[in-house]
Amino acid sequence: MKKRTLIYLAVFGIVFSSCESLIEVDPQNNLSASAVFTDIDAAQSVLNSAYNRLIRGGDGQLYGRDLKLMGDALADNIVTDADLAGQRWNTVNRNDQGAHYNIWAQSYNVINDVNEVLDKTPGLPVTPSQEPTRNSILAQAYTIRALTYFNLARVYGYEPNKIPTTGAGAGFDRSAVLRLTPTGSFADAQPMSRSSIIETYTQIESDLTEAISLFANASTPSNPVRYFTLGTAYALRGTLYLYWERYQQAIDDFDAAFANSSATLTDDIVAAFTSEMNPEAFTQLWMDWSTQSLGSNNSLYSYTHAPLWNGISTFGGQTISPELYNSFEEGDSRLGLIYVDDRHPQYYWSNKYNGAAGLYADHLIIVRYSDVLLMKAEALAALGQYSAAAELIVQLRMARNASVDVVPTDVRIVDYIKDERNRELHFEGVRFFDLKRWGNGVTKSAAVIGGVGFLAHDHHRMLAGIPNSQILLNPDLPQNPGY
Amino acid sequence: MWKGNYSIAIPSGATALIFRSIGYAEQEVPIGSGDVINVRLSEDASVLTEVIVTGYGQELKKQSLTGSVSVLSGGEIENLPTQSFDRAMQGRLGGVQVTSNGGQPGGGLNVNIRGAVSVNGSAQPLYIIDGVQMNPGGLSTQTTQNLFSFINQEDIESIQVLKDAATASIYGAQAANGVVLVTTKKGKAGRTVIKVDIQQGFQENPNPYDLATGPEYYEIYRQAYYNQYLVVSGNGENGTRAWNNRLYGSPNNPDPASIPNINWYDAVFRKGNMGQYNISFSGGSEKTSFFIGGGYNKTEGTNIGSDFTRGNLRANLEHRASDKFSIETRINLHNTISRGPAHGNGFYTNTPFTGALLVPTLNPIYDEEGGWNNDLINGYGYNIVQVLHEEDRETNTYGTISTIALNYDIIPGLRVRAYGGVDFTDARNFNYRPSSIPAYAGTGGTGAENYYRTLNWNTSLTANYNTVFGADHNFSAMAGVEYRDYTQRVLSASAQGFPNTMLRLISQASTNTGYGSTFTGFKLASVIGNVNYDYQGKYLLSGNVRYDGSSRFGADNKFGLFYGLSGGWRLSEENFLSDVRFVNELKLRASYGVTGDQSGIGNFAAMTLFSSPGAGAAYNGQPTLRPDQIGIADLTWEEVESINLGLDFGLFRNRLFGSFDIYRNHRNQMLLSQQIPQDSGYGSITVNAGRARMEGIDLELGGVPVDAGGFKWTSSFNIALIDNKLLELNEDAALDRDGNPQINDGRYTVGKKLNQVYTIPWAGVNPADGRAMYYDINGNITYSPISADDRRAYGSYDPDFFGGWTNTFSYKGFSLDVLFQYQYGNMAWTDMNYPLELSGAYGYNQLKSQLYDAWSQPGDITGVPRPFYNGAEPGSVAITTFSSRWLQDASYIRLKQLTFGYSLPSSVLSGTGIQSVRLFAQGMNLWTITKYTGEDPENTATNNSMNVYPHPRTFTFGANITF
């Protein structure tokens, strides 16, 4: 017996002598960072993460919900019914302090994903036949970074030529924090301060220019509309130039965008929005409805359809403002995307997010043909080329079965484009940014009870506040004025 | 009951015999003229004579103890109508605070020993059940199910709490928050004893809120709309019309008598029945002893759809194979089914408490045809009564907590023990939301099912040596190795689109919406040692050491050393006290030790990792790799350094006894979530950075104030005073206004108590216009305070002191047990009042006060602002702005338990074969004194108590029969 005990003790002792390996556990859910970038497929997988975050980041704080719709509530397109909406965006619609876009954290998650791709992909071993794929991945990554910085720039900062000279934000020229390399360790995560508006715009321009040159020697993925492409990159750079008021460059890029995209101007706008793929889309973020929809809690469908419309549970209370509805003339085919719910006859509802991709799911358009068309018209008008601008508006309105004799061909076209732009693009996330870059403030719908009524361009709530925790961490960030 | 005979020669002059036995009260019997003196010793209520199990099979009489240990014997918690033993510890153990965060029977609890606070760690003790190391928690994703509900309370012999680091340090990196040792019963040689326990009863939740009726609801919102429209558009009548339009589709005022008033609360809450039934057989021979038992517990929650069912089987066996070799095994098999509504705290309209309180009372529950009414005004798409009836939420867990130990005595005094223990569970979580509930009609019904398989085992090999040399020197030592391995795998699937609400299996649905397969785990390998020495039982010394390696620690910091030293001096054994007759026991103790807490480190937190989150994170059907976390290679445990000074005493023949402990713990290298700039792509990482001090006094007092004429009153009182202070934080933590580092919005601020409450000061209602007012940082009244700048400190979520007071009165066969528990000085939010006191802002039902106490005309002095729809008066912050309005002192005293028992006299039972019968009736949570107006001051475990319904008032009656 004694001997047996001793043997047992000895065995135990041997087992325990190799302690280090005894207490190793492989985290099977995860992969060590050093084991990730092995080949070009890995780069594509990390890029996929960025795409997915654009759809699902946060509760839809990027394109899944907020970048598509919140701006319309901040601006003049939406009247929120607080009770139907379960209080969602009630305060946003009133422009209460702090009720604004909150894309900071989610945007930088996207940027860190693509920074990983941009940092590691050039070092991956590729065969000559894989080079076009590598270029495609890098070009997409640059485009995503540019778009994400552009969103940060327009949510948290002013446009280069629209910095107010009065009010809390007078002369305030800070924009995004520019992080261009991935965060691989705690040491990489040191606080940085925000760059200036010009620095940020210049970086976005540089990323898009880089993307455009890489796309020239890149492979095309199957179903290219589901990815960022050369046409999208041109359209985005044109948009940047339009915000920057560099109109001729904008026009050139918009032309290049049309030339490098399969998107077309549809003459059946209702069918375009109720089909899974919208023929006007330059890029459409593709979601698998069964596993990726944001559901009744956060989807665009839910926000824009009253509870139990068609028996579907929602938190829908974001309705079309009477002013917007009244801006349409009878017969305009875009009215086909607006409906009335008999249970709430006082409201008009938008059906742009109708579950075309499945329950609570719509593939999310990043750049739409008519948007580019309208921006080009706007740039032409800004350069005084009124009749050229008017031609584009006529082209659009004909496609929408709207009258064309009302389209002015003189300086009045400038304002007409702005109105037409809203008739065409309402509930697609551009309205607030448009009003902001035009610099004339936001006149809220008269149907909004309470709130600011009119949000002047120099009111600090034209900019979103940066999350307070970030300011506590780095007061020199700095916070936006008034927060 | 032991019986024995004795004979003794009595010296001349002797006047009395003194009878002593461990575990029994000393009894002095005068010597009369007769030859025969029979005595029957009664069990000693004094804790001083108890045997303490200090871990790894070591036993020690309490009088030899040099550390700080609280003991609860199984007898004290027998027959309690609680589903898990941790709940039964509240009020009965000094320095042990138990709080809960839900009303689900058998649900999760928080246990804090000596005010343990950790910013990110669990601050929960290590539990050791018959040697199996377990961490508190649960396996339910559908409701809440406490791991410790798997143990039948009636099987417990004793619960011991190791409170100071010197004692707990034998458990090293897991011991910093104290250790709870649970030992189950074993058989004794002798005749087989059969025990049958039956208990039946019910529990209920009185509605703590005075809710508005249907007509009152109408009127609050009519005024709220009126006031809003008056301010915004200058026409209040338009507001009334808008409200009528919303309700009735017509602007005309309704006939108030026609507005229904429906009691949703009573439709959701009920009198829940409960019953527990146990049978056990114990006994044995010289060689073999056994305790075999089975139990069944069925407890209905106080809301419909909620219940707890447990069946368990136990076999504890010991066999002495030879005079050197013995085997012990303890086997527990259990099945626990918890069914109930959504767990967790917070604002969910599909959960019973918020659901029942917030739905406007003018909504009928049923429609005119008797079906569910789902055309609810401001009901947010859920008829809560329907949801509770039709949705399935269940966790069904099978498992075992079983051990085996082999003991071999190599030479007298040297014993080797090989031990293995396992805690295995397989938990099925199931959720089904039928399409008959409108909220789930769009998806065609949804189903989700997952299995949690957890294997948690530990094994040890130890050697014990005991010897006495030179007659006076007692020496014992223990050394060994231990290994613990915890793994958990989850397999899950979800789907939607069921063809029929009777079909509820995932494979029957049309669309897969998710599937998962995940893994987590950790490992610990350790070397342990212990030495005890005493001289004449007078001077006591003890030391522990443990060297732990953990898979959770960072690569540069894999191993840690923990240790404890303690000493005691039994003054009562000294000659100079031998004349002091009233002192029976007096011992001074001192200890110092270092323990660790690895609970704040995630299993893989120290590593830099990418994840592949599966279908939900894929893009266009292609897989994803995603940066997940950045790790720190030197990440390590939190360390608690503890000094404890104690005094144990027993006076007046141990009729007054107790212990007094004063301690100071320093919690070093606290694990903190270091905020890093979000623009880095990460929100935070875990670092070792903070330092805090916790100090306090534990006092346990027991006594027998009256023992005369057959009437006996025993009483035991405990109080724990705690104080703490945060000494350091990471350098990069944000600074508060005074330049002190702080995190979590001031909850942890250097130089202040831990768990600070920071909020905006509420200044009441402006008598001139009925608007809510606040104070800014300069003490000026404002309508629009700034949340970050105007907050002030309002004390702490931690109490200043807490404890309990147990009394037992017995006379003849009757007994009465009374337990009070109390807590003083902690702040708590009245979270549930918050949506109910919003002055008609958001459509929810409101308290009556929002109508009758609201400001209505200039000059009104009231605390309730005027009704105002849609959140905020122009120029004011939203009425939902959190402020001291919903913050209260949550001190309380509660009559926790009242049990009246009667034991049938043996004369009645003679000849029946029944040894004893005890009948009892008891009530729990009968009466509470508190100024806190939230639902339950005992429910302040988290700082969000919304959706947490009160501890039910429970009444049971039962019988214990012994054959």
TrEMBL record, chain A:
Localisation per UniProt entry: Cell outer membrane
GO cellular component: cell outer membrane
One Pfam family this sequence matches: SusD_RagB
Location, primary (coarse class): membrane
Domain RagB/SusD, first and last residues per copy: 358-483
Stretches assigned to the SusD-like N-terminal domain: 43-242
Keyword Membrane: yes
Signal sequence segment: none
PROSITE patterns (UniProt xref): PROKAR_LIPOPROTEIN
Alphabetical keyword list: Cell outer membrane, Membrane, Signal
Membership in a protein family: Belongs to the SusD family.
Record's protein name: Starch-binding associating with outer membrane
Organism of this sequence: Parapedobacter luteus
Classification lineage: Bacteria, Pseudomonadati, Bacteroidota, Sphingobacteriia, Sphingobacteriales
TrEMBL record, chain B:
Molecular functions per Gene Ontology: siderophore uptake transmembrane transporter activity
Gene Ontology cellular component list: cell outer membrane
Principal location listed in the UniProt entry: membrane
UniProt xrefs under SUPFAM superfamilies: Porins (SSF56935)
Keywords carried by this UniProt record: Cell outer membrane, Membrane, Signal, Transmembrane, Transmembrane beta strand, Transport
Similarity-based family: Belongs to the TonB-dependent receptor family.
Protein name: TonB-linked outer membrane protein, SusC/RagA family
Organism of provenance: Parapedobacter luteus
